């Protein structure tokens, strides 16, 4: 009885240790958050500086001309999750398939129709043979 209790306590202590190890320490979490926020702030500052430079380039010169430069025109940003990427790729693939022309020429359409009809006839013959075999097996046998 005592051995079982001691073993149970050891197992419980292991579980408690695993649980405490799985928790994130508050100090390390705070450091990660601070680092992320600093990176975010510097990124925002760089973006603001870049926009300010673009605005300066768009101003009129002494003759009244405005230099027009090629810039981003609302480039669509794809979502970062894997499932969202797969979904957008599937949508693009479907769109491409829809635009693709199958049987563009009339002779192609006729050939596909002939192949389809030949396949149907072949299946019909196979079905007829299968039904004949089943009918042959269905003889009346009293004993």
TrEMBL record:
Stretches assigned to the Ribosomal RNA-processing protein 7 C-terminal domain: 23-143
Region (Disordered): 42-95
An example Gene Ontology biological process: ribosomal small subunit assembly
One Pfam family per UniProt: RRP7
CDD domains: RRP7_Rrp7A (cd12951)
Bias kind Basic and acidic residues: ranges: 42-58, 79-91
Gene Ontology CC terms, in alphabetical order: CURI complex; UTP-C complex
Family according to the record: Belongs to the RRP7 family.
PANTHER family (alphabetical): RIBOSOMAL RNA PROCESSING PROTEIN 7-RELATED, RIBOSOMAL RNA-PROCESSING PROTEIN 7 HOMOLOG A-RELATED
Name of the protein: Putative ribosomal RNA-processing protein 7 homolog B
Source species: Sinocyclocheilus grahami
